[in-house]
Amino acid sequence: MSGLQEQATAGLADKVRAGDRRALARAITLIESTKPEHSGDAEALLEALLPASGHSVRIGISGVPGVGKSTFIERFGLHLLEAGHKVAVLAVDPSSKVSGGSILGDKTRMEELSRDPRAFIRPSPTGGTLGGVARRTREAMLICEAAGFDVVIVETVGVGQSETAVAEMVDIFLLMLLPGGGDELQGIKKGIVELADAVVVNKADGDLKPAAERAAAEYYAALGLLRAANKDWRPPVLKCSALLGEGIEAVWQTVEKHRAVMEASGARAAKRAAQAGAWMWAEIADGLMRRFKAHPEVARELEGLERQVKAGKTTPTVAARRLVGLFSRD
Ligand code: GDP
User: Fold this and answer.
1) Mean pLDDT for the chain?
2) 114 and 24 in a common domain
3) DSSP 8-class letter at 234
């Protein structure tokens, strides 16, 4: 990196720390860049900002499309702004590359929150693998923290593996459900339910209110059958109406209670440490895989060997050994 570039990066870091929103947006654009010539600057920026990061409550929110995530986050976010917090909303949505838009890209979502200078909303980075999208979101989270946001919400659509990626970067993972029955819970992958630190049954209003009551009781019973992730915390089931703004404060109280319990036992620090370690290994795996696929000899042999494996002409083990051998020869 040239001296000039170094200065520019340091200047950008200063502005981010001072809470300059345009600098924040630029910083995130820089770390989202896939251009190789930006990676040095992006790394230097993150190094510079890392000491100022970490001071936020990191909240993950997941749920199927239509459950009311954006309605909820808007209400919840505005409520937190009122209470004096600064709120950043990020998204993990690897499917956003398809439409070019993203789950947060739609301007009608969280309209009021997005207009408030105390909030910062960033759509999911477009393109790339889930791992890549999650990595950039995680880094954006650190940058938001350095910029003084003390609540970071990471949203994801509840349809696939992105929940795990989000749960691995937050302190508390909220699963939003509709007022269905226990049957609905069966329809959601068990693994995702197990990730939940709290369940929020949304749309507990109007005609749906009795159904929401029933659903909450059923979910609570069903969750009790799952192995508890932490002995000090049994995931509660809350009801709310994002539309009417009811039950929003109770969700925040749950977040705060969870934080107090986890901090008291040391589980919060341990979780963040484990997350950082897992992130490093994910980076290593990613980096190695990229280099593996770009290796000229591997690239030459890969397709043919894969075809032979699929045709049953050679075994996966033999093919893998040969490819790894080619890769690690030099
Ligand atoms: P998302 O796809 O999970 O972000 O869901 P949205 O926030 O876009 O909400 C989907 C639809 O559900 C919208 O028409 C909302 O107005 C409606 N909705 C959201 N929250 C509530 C709620 O608490 N009660 C009711 N009755 N409708 C809601």
Assistant:
1) 87
2) no
3) P
Q: Are residues 290 and 217 in the same domain?
A: no
Domain count, the chain: 3
Q: Ligand 1, closest atom to CA 65? A: 2
| CB contact at 8 A, 175 and 193 | yes
CA angle 53, 55, 58 (to 5 degrees): 100
Does this model's pTM top 0.85? yes
- Residues in contact with ligand 1 by the CB-under-6-Å rule are 63, 65-71, 202-203, 205, 241-243
- Are 145 and 57 in contact, with CB atoms under 8 Å apart? no
Q: Are residues 97 and 166 in the same domain?
A: yes
**Interatomic CA distance for residues 252 and 323, integer angstroms:** 51
Same domain, 242 and 173: yes
Residue nearest to atom 5 of ligand 1 (CA): 68
C-alpha of residue 70 to centroid of ligand 1, in Å: 7
Mean pLDDT throughout 15-33? 93
